UniProtKB/TrEMBL annotation:
It comes from the Eukaryota. The keyword Transferase does not apply. GO terms for cellular component: mitochondrion; nucleus; ribonucleoprotein complex; ribosome. It is found in: Mitochondrion; Nucleus. The keyword Nucleus applies. It holds the Pfam family CR6_interact. This is Large ribosomal subunit protein mL64. Residues 215-271 are annotated as: Disordered. Acts as a negative regulator of G1 to S cell cycle phase progression by inhibiting cyclin-dependent kinases. Inhibitory effects are additive with GADD45 proteins but also occur in the absence of GADD45 proteins. Acts as a repressor of the orphan nuclear receptor NR4A1 by inhibiting AB domain-mediated transcriptional activity. May be involved in the hormone-mediated regulation of NR4A1 transcriptional activity. May play a role in mitochondrial protein synthesis. Belongs to the mitochondrion-specific ribosomal protein mL64 family. Keywords: Cell cycle, Coiled coil, Mitochondrion, Nucleus, Ribonucleoprotein, Ribosomal protein.
Length: 271
């Protein structure tokens, strides 16, 4: 390329000197302006062929022309070579990748009427509400969420206030269970002592006589506890009945007093 530029400059100077020598009537400045041609105007066909061979030798990738064009960020298919190359989608994509170098008319990238109608229909179905309606719906959902959060917070506060009571109830239940377990253990120990006193001497707990006597004592104890619970239940029931009777008597007395008072008022009115 440098040799071509030197050759072009030399030819240009030779031409200007010849014209100045043989004709003083020619407009030299105009001729100089016309002589500002591109270097390719002075390159012969042989030079072009030689450049093509050199360019081909420079390609060491051994790629196909299409692949090398992609590598050089050029349009790999200036002319359609497949069925989908002529589609509008492919043409737009080519322009998006290579810009003006793709040789695609930019006006083809603008959507046609059918595409605009289809896009509008899609948007209408996907987003049927107007912007004010969407804003109102979003505000409504936000308000509902805030209300649910506030209710949840209030519920948590109420439960936290009851937490101490729940803990105390739990401790009381645990203490009650422990007391019952201790009571059962103490009763068991007392029964064992009673059985030992019954025999009058130390007996092996694994002895059959000891086991029989212990079982008998346990049955008697369970029977006594059952009888005690029955008496307590009867006492509670009698207490409840007596209270109910007292309330009924009070109600009857109040009703009789009301009747007497109403009769007195009636007599007074008649007089």
């Amino acid at each position: 390329m440098i040799g071509n530029k030197i050759l072009n400059t030399f030819l240009k100077q030779q031409r200007i000197s010849v014209i100045r020598k043989f004709s003083s009537q020619i407009n030299i400045e105009k001729l100089e302006e016309e002589s500002n041609l591109s270097p390719s105007d002075f390159i012969s066909d042989e030079a072009k062929a030689r450049d093509a061979i050199i360019e081909q030798k420079r390609n060491k990738s051994r790629l196909r022309e299409q692949g090398r064009s992609i590598l050089m960020n050029k349009n790999p298919y200036p002319e359609p070579c497949a069925s989908h190359h002529g589609t509008l989608k492919y043409i737009r994509r080519t322009y998006g990748c290579y810009g003006e170098a793709s040789g695609v008319n930019p006006s083809l990238c603008w959507p046609v009427k059918e595409e605009l109608d289809s896009s509008k229909e899609y948007e209408r179905l996907k987003h049927p509400y107007t912007i004010p309606e969407m804003i109102a719906e979003a505000a409504k959902l936000k308000k509902e969420k805030e209300e649910r959060t506030a209710m949840r917070q209030e519920e948590i506060v109420k439960r936290m206030q009851k937490l101490e009571g729940w803990k105390q109830d739990l401790f009381n239940r645990i203490a009650k269970k422990e007391a019952e377990a201790r009571s059962v253990k103490e009763r068991k120990e007392r029964l064992v002592e009673e059985v030992k006193r019954h025999f009058g001497y130390s007996v092996d707990p694994k002895d059959e006589r000891f086991k029989e006597m212990l079982e008998k004592k346990e049955k008697e104890q369970r029977k006594a506890l059952k009888e005690e619970r029955r008496k307590q239940k009867e006492a509670k029931l009698m207490d409840k009945v007596s209270k109910k009777g007292n309330h009924e008597n009070q109600d009857n007395e109040k009703e009789s007093d009301d009747k007497e008072e109403s009769s007195k008022n009636k007599n007074i009115k008649e007089e």
